[in-house]
Amino acid sequence: MTARAKVVTFLRVPPHSATIAESSEFSIKMPEDLETVDGSCILIPCSFNVPPENELDLRSPASGVWRKHSRWFADSTDVFNSSKTSNVLRGEILGQLTHKNCTSVLYNVTRAMEDLYFFRVEMGFKYTFEDHVTIKTRDVLPKPRVTPPSRQQEGSTIRVACSVASPCPQSPPTLTWRPALGDSVVTMQKKEDGTQEVSSVLSFISSSVHNGVDLSCVVSSSDTRVAVQETIRLAVDYCPKNVSVSMTPAEWLLGRNVTLSCFSDAHPAVESYWWFWENGNHSELVGQAADLNLNLTLRTMGRYWCRVQNRLGEANSTEVLRTDPLWWVLAGGLSLLLVASFCLICR
Fold first, then answer.
1. Where are the membrane-spanning stretches (predicted)?
2. N or C end of the chain: smaller count of CB under 10 Å?
3. Can you give the CATH number for the domain in which 124 is found?
4. Residue whose C-alpha is closest to residue 115's, from 141, 83, 88
5. Tens digits of residue pLDDT in 130-142
């Protein structure tokens, strides 16, 4: 009988830091990219899953390790180990590892520490997860995001929201509105990926004086001396107001051709103009444009005023241009009566 040769196959195993076999059921969830201000801290939202056979190994003592550059021992640096008192970076494991929560914070993250970061858990088992987070730094805070309000009508409440990432929970950024048009409410919010952001909502009653105003949300922090801002321009609609009239040339001479002009403050702009002429009890419409060309004669004597309209309403000028020869004798020429105008209709 011939003896059978025993064939032994040797498998080359890469130098992996985990002491258990690879399994697709080991998984970790954390953002792909995180960014913080140079020298500040950074929050790393983190959670993981293990195979059913390792659930019983989720017990104390438990420690977490943040490994820089590679998941393998040979090509990496352990920058933080929760079981050690001395580390490359000071840090904390905020989550409960036995509950599969590896949320952590690393302090004093400088530009030299930019790299890939892998998480390793050590308890009843030891495993370094394959997925990683890329950590980067920047010199200044990121620009805030300002949500511009929709176009508002005068008298309505305007709310403007501003938000910015808050990568370091120990030194959240400060949001300031310029100009300070009203009251603001600041909140800290958690996003879907577990990162945090600071939000400020400014509320104020809109007025015509706010139309065209540049409103800025300014972000500052104790981690940097440089403040950043985002600016929007407000748009407020209102009825025509401050309606006035003028005559060019201003000197009155019988037989002279003059131009009467109607001015107003309105947003949106005035769409329609009407010029009215009054003489005694008689009144009639004499023009429908911003300017009225007129020849000064005895037949055109009387009072002239204008009415303007935009899509919100209309207003009359109570600044009356009077072309009465007797008035010219008594007053020495043209007289303009300056009185505030009022909005007649506002839908």
1. 326-346
2. N
3. 2.60.40.10
4. 88
5. 999 999 999 988 8
